[in-house]
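Hi all, posting the design record for the shared folder.

TITLE: backbone redesign
STEP: 1 of 1
STRUCTURE INPUT:
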């Protein structure tokens, strides 16, 4: 596989830091996106099986508009515990929403299901969340099998039997002084598709599941096509809820809370372009948006570039993943 082009990273957005912590033996981890100065934020949840924290607070009609970090974690609902460590770290730095009596760090979070790889007994916890904060940097960090992408996989129509290892990826776009970046942990039910070619980058592999032949002679089968044929004709029950794409888009544009929510909504277009099928009842697809700057910019422009950055981040997540948990990965192939 040719080297991936450098398409930037979410830390190109001023004020954004990213840190990862993971357990490579248990194949789970978490990623924190820090904004010590606070960021106006919004969120959009599209999947039918989400696991989230503080998303109601981001509703435009509610009081608090600025967050200090967003956590992305594995471990299914157990992984939300890692946000406690992020709050502890920020409290020690005296960062948070002032209530006069105390400063309360605002840390929304979303999780993905990775208990089907590695150890189901080990999940991101408060200590791991704290370590992710300690490792946070403003430079490009590692991608693939790190942080929330450590136990991620894609193409799970039949569970992990014919799935492919995935991970976490980041990208950014610059247009004049405007910067829009994204970071996405890709753990989808569906396949990762390169929209420029329509080809499967990572996903369901050809092979056998019990008595059924999946795909033809090609390396990757198409999840959608297999839903039409193998699943549809044989009334096979779809795999469990071991999925979800979670991510953050950030910009140096000045956005209000409703505008940030709209950008998060538009960013899901990038998920739909790069993953097929997306936003299923078996995924908890969630995207947060963070505005850190004061640059005047049209919300539609920001949202359009956010969706492009999300697509690039998803492709990088798939192409950066190394083999793990008995699943093949694309890194180095």
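Okay, here is what came back for every position:
SEQUENCE:
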């Amino acid at each position: 596989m040719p080297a991936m082009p450098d398409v930037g990273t979410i830390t190109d957005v001023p004020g954004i830091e990213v840190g990862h912590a993971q357990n490579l033996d248990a194949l789970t981890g978490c990623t924190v996106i820090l904004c010590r100065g606070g960021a106006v934020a919004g969120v959009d949840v599209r999947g039918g099986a989400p696991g989230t924290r503080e998303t109601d607070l981001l509703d435009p009609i509610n009081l608090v508009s600025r967050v200090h970090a967003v956590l992305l974690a594995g471990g299914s609902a157990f992984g939300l515990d890692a946000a406690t460590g992020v709050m502890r770290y920020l409290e020690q730095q005296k960062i948070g929403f002032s209530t006069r009596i105390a400063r309360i760090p605002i840390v929304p979070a979303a999780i993905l299901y990775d208990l089907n790889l590695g150890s189901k007994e080990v999940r991101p916890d408060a200590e791991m969340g704290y370590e992710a904060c300690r490792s946070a940097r403003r430079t490009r960090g590692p991608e693939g099998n790190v942080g929330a992408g450590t136990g991620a996989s894609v193409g799970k129509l039949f569970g992990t039997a014919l799935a492919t290892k995935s991970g976490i990826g980041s990208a950014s776009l610059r247009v004049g002084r405007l910067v829009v970046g994204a970071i996405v942990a890709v753990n989808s039910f569906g396949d990762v598709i390169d929209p420029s070619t329509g080809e499967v980058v990572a996903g369901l592999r050809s092979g056998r599941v019990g008595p059924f032949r999946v795909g033809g002679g090609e390396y990757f089968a198409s999840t959608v096509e297999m839903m039409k044929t193998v699943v549809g004709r044989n009334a096979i029950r779809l795999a469990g809820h071991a999925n979800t794409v979670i991510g953050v888009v950030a910009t140096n544009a000045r956005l209000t809370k409703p505008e940030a929510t709209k950008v998060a909504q538009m960013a899901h277009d990038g998920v739909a372009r790069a993953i097929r099928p997306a936003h299923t009842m078996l995924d908890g697809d969630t995207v947060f948006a963070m505005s850190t700057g004061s640059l005047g910019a049209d919300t539609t422009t920001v949202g359009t570039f956010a969706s492009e950055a999300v697509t690039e981040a998803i492709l990088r997540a798939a192409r950066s993943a190394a083999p793990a948990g008995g699943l093949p990965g694309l890194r180095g192939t």
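COMMENT: The first strand starts at residue 17 and ends at 23.
Let me know if anyone wants the other runs.
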